[in-house]
Amino acid sequence: MSFLKNKFWTRLQNFFTFRPEKAGEARYVILRRNLAVTMILVTFVPLFLMAFINYVEYRATLHKEILSPMQSLVGKAKHSLELFIAERVATVSFVSKAYSFEELADPQRLSQIFSVMKTEFQGFVDLGIINEKGIQINYVGPYQLLGKDYSEQPWFHEVRVKGSYVSDVFLGYRKFPHMVVAVESSVPGGKSWIVRATIDTDRLNDVILSMSLDPESDAFLINREGILQTPSKFYGNVLDRLSFPIPSPTYQPSVVSLRDDQGRELFMSYAFLREPNLILVMVKPKVRVLKAWTTLKSEMLVLFVGGTLIVLFVVIKITGIFVNRIKEADEKREAAFRELQHHHKLSSLGRLAAGVAHEINNPMAIINEKAGLILDLLPQMPQSPYRDRLETLTRDILKSVDRCRNITHRLLGFARRMDVQIEVLDLNEVVREVLTFLEKEALYRNIDVRLQLAENLPRIASDRGQLQQVFLNILNNAFEAVPDGGIVSITSWEVDADKVAVSIQDNGHGMDEETMKHIFEPFFTTKKSYGTGLGLPITYGIVKKLGGDIQVQSHVGEGTTFTVYLPKKAPHAE
Predict the structure, then answer these.
(1) Of the residues 133, 148, 162, 380, which has the maximum number of CB atoms within 10 A of its CB?
(2) What is the DSSP annotation of 375-415?
(3) CATH fold of 423-567, please?
(4) Phi-psi region of 190 (alpha: psi -120 to 50; beta: other; left: phi over 0)
(5) Span 24-289: which CATH code?
(6) Over the stretch 4-17, which tens digit does the pLDDT of each residue have?
(7) Over the stretch 92-113, which tens digit does the pLDDT of each residue have?
(8) Phi, psi (5° rounding) for residue 241?
(9) Is the dihedral of CA 292, 294, 300, 302 positive or negative?
């Protein structure tokens, strides 16, 4: 238990701990989350406590002021109904026990008994005597039921077994809703008879009407199958089936919440009668019962939701502003540090480039002078079969010296600002020229170089030599990145009215995000054994100097794409 407790607190502490060493956006997301969660907790705890207290008070008030009266009213009505039925059953039972079979079989005597019953106890409709074979041998009432055979009726057999029977409301031979009370009596010797009386269900309605319900409430009796035993205001007449489920059995008044087939939210109070097997149901619409509370709850809800939204808005706004300012400060600090570091590296590279260019230019100048002197001396030499050959070789030396001078000139351009040589050129042609330097390597390593150069690509004003150096550097990196048999795709297209673009895509090993952040920094290289870390920084400087831009996309294991955007009209040309 102690271990789990310590583990929980450790995780909770880690959740709210801000770690500056986490890279990228993650640390700012964590900081924003921690601030927002803290402020929300501090603000929302009192609001939720207030809502919880109000809810508890509401439940107590609801039960005390609304639900308890409903339960009490149903309990009283249930008691009245049970008393009404019990009196009628007791009356029929008294008649069956107080009089002999011969007295009850006498029509005049039975008529007198029934007259007294109707006078003392309201609700009796008729009275009959049934022998043990199920034949009604004597009858007093408004119908012609003398001699009626009840031997096949289920209630007859139930009376013979249980001794008494109280029916649900049904139509029967009379074709109007009524209830039947039947009691069996017998004498020593085995002779038995049944006294059967019919009760008018209007008396049940009178008990329900005495509940004095409001116009929107309803009360009725149903049997265990959900059949209405008394008429309902909203759910049908006698013997119609109730549209919502029968509640679970309980003899104590209970209240449940439900929705009827008309979509009304209701409170239903109900109780099961012990005799007969009927259920007293009372329903009240929630809208009326909870009208005052609904108004109060709506106002409280509006206040709570409004306050919540305002708090959330303020918390999100404040934390966003606060974290964004921290992020901007960190980015400015990091940018300043990188800029300073970049300037230091460029400065070092510039000094190195100037020194290297100076050291190379000195012997090149000597070679150039010596070669020029040879050309000057050749006309003064006697005719020789090697004279023309020597002149050709000497001029080749001068061309190479001139090429070396251009190279060192560009190298110095990395150290100090130099003027570019602008000409109108075909970018596709420049790409093809650069590929001629790499044809043998592509053939030897079986690299598939795919050209997708746009036809009718507009000519641009730029520096041919520097563009050759840009594409050569990028293609060299692409060739080094792909394995033997790899693919390098070169695509050119017109971006818009002012720019064209060339992309060089390989399917090599790719780069991670941390490597991509440093690829344009001088001396940064992943080629530990032979790389200088100068190719891409020089490429980046040339593209920027020509007024363009360079972008890179890479995924580890999938490859890298360099895209060079160039203006159709270079800034210097304009």
Answers:
(1) 148
(2) HHHGGGSPP-TTHHHHHHHHHHHHHHHHHHHHHHHHHHHHH
(3) Heat Shock Protein 90 (3.30.565)
(4) left
(5) 3.30.450.20
(6) 555 545 554 554 45
(7) 999 988 888 888 889 999 999 9
(8) -90, 135
(9) negative
